[in-house]
Amino acid sequence: MEQQAIGENLIYQRKLKGYTQAELSEKTQVTIRTIQRIEKGDVNPHLQTVKLLASALDIEIETLMPLHNPKEETIQKKWLLLLHGSPFIGFAIPLANILIPLFLWIHKREDNPIYARHGRIIINFQISMTIMYVLSLIALVTIEKWGFLFFILVIPCSISIMLFNIIKVTNSLKCSYPLAFPFIRKSKVARTAK
Q1: Which residues, at least 6 apart from 111, have a Cβ–Cβ distance to it below 8 Å?
Q2: Of 118, 66, 128, residue with least CA distance to 97
Q3: Who wins on pLDDT, 16 or 101?
Q4: Is the pLDDT assigned to residue 190 strictly greater than 60?
Q5: With the C-alpha atoms ordered 56, 57, 58, 60, is the resulting torsion angle positive or negative?
Q6: Are 134 and 94 in contact (CB under 8 A)?
């Protein structure tokens, strides 16, 4: 992730100054191949290489190298916890388990790709669980014994998966919702942007 950011910043700054990769290589004594690999995000350059590139481009090192901001990570974690925790309101207010994450996702998906991905997964899971719950109600009435078992397993299963993901996102900023059907897919614009 950091490699890509350095590469994108290098491409932008190099083109802003009007340099080709060869011209930048001549000014810095950094090989063209290294510049190409940095711009593609294949390597994480040494600090000395970044200093040479920044000096040749007449910019600050921070312009090329994004600094890790712990405050930004804390804010990101809070938004993700809100996204993952908000479906619990659905146990008190019908369909809030879908609508609240949907509104949060619509509001935050443009800010960071991680919000877009997590929100999409959460909404897909909540829609899937709501459909499963409706099917379990039908099974409760129509299928003897197994219908009741299906009915009483849907909610605890859903709660345990949601709690597991809240813990997982707190520790690693990742999530895993196994029973989600892809109702909302990644948009074509987002796919081509990557």
Answers
A1: none
A2: 128
A3: 101
A4: no
A5: negative
A6: no
What is the reported pLDDT for 135?
93
Residue 2, C-beta contacts closer than 8 angstroms, at least 6 positions apart: 44, 66
Query: Which amino acid makes up residue 172?
Result: S
Tens-digit pLDDT profile for residues 92-124: 999 999 999 999 999 998 887 889 999 999 999
| HSE value, Cβ hemisphere, 13 Å, CA-based, for 60 | 4
Please state, in angstroms and rounded to a whole number, the distance separating the CA atoms of residues 154 and 156.
6
CA distance 29 to 42: 19
In single-letter form, the type of residue at position 106 comes to I
Beta strands in 63-179 (DSSP E): none
Unique residue bearing structure tokens 């600094």: 67
Number of residues assigned to the chain: 194
Number of H helices, E strands in the chain: 10, 0
